[in-house]
Specification:
424 residues; alpha/beta; Archaeosine Trna-guanine Transglycosylase, Chain: A, domain 4; Rossmann fold; seven-stranded mixed beta sheet; Transcription Regulator spoIIAA; 20 strands; six-stranded mixed beta sheet
């Protein structure tokens, strides 16, 4: 099979400069780099040899002028250098990209070796955790979706795209840009561009644990689907037989479909976005043979307000899933995020039947696991509902964590006892 055609818009993006920056950093930053931390912040840089542009390669030296690392220069970010390689000097070229991506694929052998590999969805590159800071690649069946969080990747995009196509055999590539990039220099690329091969109009269908889903890879949230919660969705499905389930912040219905397929008696999905709930309904319909017995309903509205109204109406459920978006985009937002988690726990516990299950998650990287779990448990004690912890989980296996800040997803499963419920 011939390699898919690279589109002209990608060919017009400038290539990286040949001249390398020489960089020195503070002793503390040097220790972190040698320990393979992927970021060097602006305030940690003590000298740069010459002017450069985003994506230029830099060599980080120690005070004895010995090589320490290779990094990408990021002048528009507080993370001034994104480290690629630590140790002995090495060229960052096509061979380096190939070896790095091949290593990432090898870590995901459970997906690549699956007989249905060409129909699955999984994360191929998990940013810093796979050695490519600010660069995400998700695969949906025959389509690769590249999510860029830093402008350093534009000059290297052509080389990386060619390697990805060679190693995965996919037929099309879509580029998604983070909000901070959309307002800067994108060299003619816009969010959702197809930059290689062919990607049909409309959503891409894929399999997750034998269930069919669709992902809007061009305009959907993130890359089109939240792959990091796959294992947690599977666990909810395994608990759902003959249960009534409430799925809060349901998005496109990942938890809802797994619960229905697991034999749930009913599933009620709540989300602020009508289009995402419409996608949830389509995803449910795609699995009609196995979800037919489940009564599925949706409700558009603010999750906090909807949960209050459900409780006032006397509704209750055997399983309540609370999977909100990030509440702490900045460190200054952490206290507010913890208050939101407290409020969600109180509201959820008013809706969980005695002996039922609460699953609550946080994807706020600035909220630590200890802060999150302590907040949920404190809220449960305050609500007078004893909870027995069943499991604490994180990202699925295609989202490896290689450094502390890369561990953003926390989820807990608790069995909720009877007791006095708070009126909050």
């Amino acid at each position: 099979m011939s390699r898919p055609e690279i589109h002209r818009r990608l060919l017009r993006v400038p290539r990286p400069n040949d001249k390398r920056l020489a960089v020195r950093v503070t002793p503390d930053a040097l220790r972190h780099v040698k320990a393979h931390h992927p970021w060097v912040f602006e305030e940690s840089v003590t000298s740069i040899s010459h002017e450069a542009t985003a994506g230029d390669l830099a060599v980080i030296f120690d005070n004895d002028r010995k090589f320490v690392a290779m990094a990408l220069y990021d002048p528009e970010s507080p993370i001034r250098f994104r480290v690629l390689h630590v140790g002995r000097p090495t060229p960052i070229d096509d061979n380096w990209w190939r070896a790095t991506i091949a290593t990432a694929l090898a870590r995901r052998e459970v997906f690549t070796s699956d007989p249905a590999a060409e129909e699955l969805a999984y994360r191929v590159i998990n940013g810093e955790n796979d050695g490519m800071s600010g660069f995400i690649v998700d695969r949906y069946a025959d389509v690769l979706v590249l999510k860029l969080y830093s402008g350093v990747w534009f000059p290297h995009l052509l080389a990386i795209t060619r390697v990805l196509l060679d190693l995965t055999g996919c037929g099309g590539v879509v580029v998604r840009l983070s909000r901070n990039l959309e307002h800067g220099e994108t060299f003619g690329l816009v969010d959702g561009d197809v930059v290689a091969g062919v990607v049909a109009e409309g959503p891409v269908r894929f399999l997750e644990d034998g269930l069919v889903f669709e992902a809007d890879v061009r305009t959907g949230q993130k890359t089109g689907h939240f792959l990091d919660q796959r294992a947690n969705r599977r666990r909810i499905g395994s608990m759902a037989a003959d249960r009534d389930v409430l799925d809060v912040f349901a998005s496109t219905g990942g938890f809802s479909v797994h619960a229905a397929a697991g034999g749930a008696r009913s599933v009620h999905a709540v989300d602020l976005s009508a289009p995402t709930l419409a996608a949830a309904e389509r995803n449910m319909a795609l699995n009609e043979p196995v979800v037919r017995a489940c009564a599925f309903s949706t409700e558009v509205g603010d999750a906090f307000e909807v949960m209050v109204q459900l409780a006032r109406g006397g509704e209750s459920y055997d399983i309540v899933v609370v999977d909100p978006p990030s509440f702490a985009q900045r460190q200054a937002n952490v206290e507010g995020a913890l208050r939101a988690y407290t409020r969600l726990t109180h509201l959820a516990l008013r809706l969980v039947r005695p002996g039922g299950i609460l699953m609550q998650a946080s994807c706020s990287s600035r909220v630590t696991a200890e802060q999150f779990f302590d907040t949920v448990l404190d809220a449960a004690r305050d609500a007078g509902r004893p909870m027995t912890e069943l499991e604490r989980t994180g990202h699925d296996i295609d989202h490896p964590v290689g450094f502390r800040e890369g561990e953003y997803l926390k989820a807990g499963f608790w069995r909720v006892g009877a007791g006095h419920t708070s009126s909050r």
